[in-house]
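Today's session is about reading a structure prediction critically. Students often jump straight to the picture, but the first step is always the sequence itself: look for stretches that repeat, for charged clusters, for runs of hydrophobic residues. Only then move on to the predicted structure, which in these notes is written as discrete structure tokens rather than atom positions. Here is the chain we will use throughout the hour.
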Amino acid sequence: MARARAQALQAAQVAAEPLSPPSPAAPDEDQLRTEKERADKAEAKLAEVRKKAAELERDVKAAKGRLETDRRVYMVQKGELDIAKDRYLELKRRHDALRKEHEELIDAVRQAAREERKAQESAAAAAAPAAPPEAPPAPPPAGE
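Below is the predicted structure for this chain, in token form.
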């Protein structure tokens, strides 16, 4: 880009430089024609270089616009990603707390079931030896 601009400026300077003053001698028609052709070619080249410079400047402006847009999109997406990350961490923390509470409740239920089973077994064991074994009924007296 800078090289193209430098070339454009150089071509502009070459075209803007005054031609060497005509010699006091009679102008040669051939020489005038060649000088005029050379001046026309220089002007055409200058116009072409200016056109290229303008085109390159438009391209640079468009590229800068795209870059700025991409930068803005990046910043928005980065912010959204940060929000999503924070949300994920909060949900994970809540999930872990609920899971821990759930496991504690399951352990408490299991412990209560064990204690109830032990209480039932000890009550059953205490009730069994306290009752005397029943004696078989006595045989009826023989003499009657």
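Discussion point for the tutorial: Residues 29-130 form the longest helix (102 residues).
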